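Thread: Modeling a multi-component assembly for a lab meeting

Hi all, long-time lurker, first post. My supervisor asked me to bring a structural picture of a complex we are working on to next week's group meeting, and I have zero experience with this. I have the sequence lines for every component (735 residues in total). Could someone generate the structure of the whole assembly? Inputs are pasted exactly as I received them:
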Amino acid sequence: MFDTTGFWKDIFIFILVLVVVYTLLKIFVLKYFKNKDRAKSIGLNIALVIGIVYLFFRIFKVIDDNFPDFSTMFMMTNIVNQALQVSVLALATTGIVLIFKTSATTNFAQGMIATFGAFVAAKLIQYFTLNYTDLTVTNMVFLAMIGGAITAFLFGIFVDAVIIRNSKDKTPIGKQMITMGLVLVLAGAMPLIFGKILLPIPKMSYEPNIAFKLFGIDLFITVHAYYALIITVVLLVVLFSMLRFTKWGLGVRATASNELVAGMMGVNTKIITSMSWAIAGLLGAVAAVMLTPNATNVTVALMTPTQVNAFMAAILGSFSSFLGPLVATVLIPVLTGLLSLIVPLWQNAVVYLFILAIVLVKPMGLFGKKIAKKV
Amino acid sequence: MICRTEVCKDRKARIKQITNHPYFGFFIITFLMLIVQLLRAAGVPVSNTLVRAFGITMIYIIVALGFSILLGYAGLASLGTAGFVGIGTYILGYFTKNLEASVFIVILVSIVGAIVIGLIVGFISLRIEGMYLAIITLGLSEILNEVFKNAVSITNGTNGLGLDSQLILFKNLIFIDHNTIFIVTAIIMFFMMILTLNLIKSPTGRALLAMRNSTSAAQAMGVSILKYRLMAFIVSTVYAMLGGVIYMSYISFSIPTTWSLAFSLNILAAVIVGGSQSIYGIVLGTFMIFGLNLGVFQQFDFFKNNPAISVMFNGLLIILVIMFYPGGLIRLVTTTYYKLKKALAKLKTKWREYRYGSDN
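Re: Modeling a multi-component assembly
Sure thing. I ran the full set together rather than chain by chain. Output:
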């Protein structure tokens, strides 16, 4: 579709130059710094930022070569189109990171619990359309979303309080395996519970697109994506302020740093973990309900790609911070959307390769701090 | 029944020598797997799906054995298995269909490829550990899946790559029926089990175990982390790719959707459910996860119409095993075996007391 001659060559040469410059600096300049580790990590960060900026710049140049007059608009439209993906991914990733912080395990069932919530929401919508015909679409989806979120909230509590707390194997890998088992159980149970009828969820609104201006460029955003963005921002702001200013948030941070010591200091770690599982389920369910209109119907595999992307975002932004993964959740869909213009079909693979390369350079992620290992 | 003569005692000792040999159990397992095929050869009407179920289970046992070296011995959790098995299937498919290469060349190529990929992942594992490694290998598997989907000229894309069930041994096209491949698979499985046992009982296996328990302690004892991590990944990848090659030659069809995250999770589940440090455990786990569903459940119409139930059963099994028997089902089996043995011994002494009177 696009003429991309020279794109990969330029990227490759740029990376090579970056590596050579970094190595030279490391050999000849690093010894003059007092705090070598700090200087090294700052240097790496600068190199990565330069690399990412250059990647965007080079993509822009490709678009500019093909559409000389509309290049900026084209790129901005492409970025704005990812608003829904970004908000869905942000919610899913925050759920995974929250669980990783309190339970020290990666929750593979996050997507499935979310899909369960979406199924309940779709059933509710079916019920509303039959019995309450005077409800508008927006109100209906919103009520259903709350219903689905509450279901996923309770399910999260159930998973932690009934299954994981009573498990004999409490190692991270054991917990991870339980969530994997849960994936299979839910994948089997959901078609049985909700039947084989297609369950659609409508968009939150079918009003005409909202037009707005950014840097003097006319852009459009669908009302559905706009609402999704608002819901995401509100949920995340509430969550982060809870983490920052409430006792529960303090408990989460204490549990994240050391569960045993937090327990000894009087933090009720059981309630803290249960609540984080519940909130993760809630966030996931909201994300799933917002994502479903893209696929028209709720299916078992609805959240699987989002789940993989969420893991990637969490690892790119580092599990040890909350804000790092959020930056990654913006970066991944935007980059995927732009690369789909340049390498159609291969965009996911290329983005994963980039993430792999970045994580190889910085094992703890973009915003992670290196944790000193004690023997 | 009671043995009194020298000849009889000698014979009994010899039998015991055979049954106590570590390979004897593997032989029995292989034989049990082959029974279906033998029955069919003898004229008993065995359904195709049952034979196929056993064949697939054997292939997955090979993959799971490789994975257990990684998880149970080196302590590295990887979710890239699906991608590696997928590569194996496509190597055989492409080389046989387009290049008309011999099977032996294919196996050679896949082993070389496995070594290269194992080296890459091994080097990644040196920098990234634990949960992070699982997610990174998951990403690698996703990349491979994208390649399977999009490299249409090699993999035939999402339609799947089919072979006309013909393999090339030397030069000419030779048609090998699935029954022969079934038997060859059983033999390969037997040798893979022996190889695995020898590997984990050797100094290499002990070094891997030391590394699993504590990398720092292992390094202090002179175990090279670099060498053994790379080796664990290479061995596991070779097993996986070989499994892929056999899968393709047996099923003659490979489609990208098979090599998704679910496959890696199932292999992981098989290893965990059975017991990650025991070969018998892996056989048991693979049978529970794959064989039971394919071989037993699919025979009933109820399960055939509701495939979701068997998936649910697998999930429940995993959760229950981890909740109550973290060592795997094989530990349950061995503990009940010893309990039974103890109870039998007690009964025997009681019977003797009753028969001959007590010592006092």
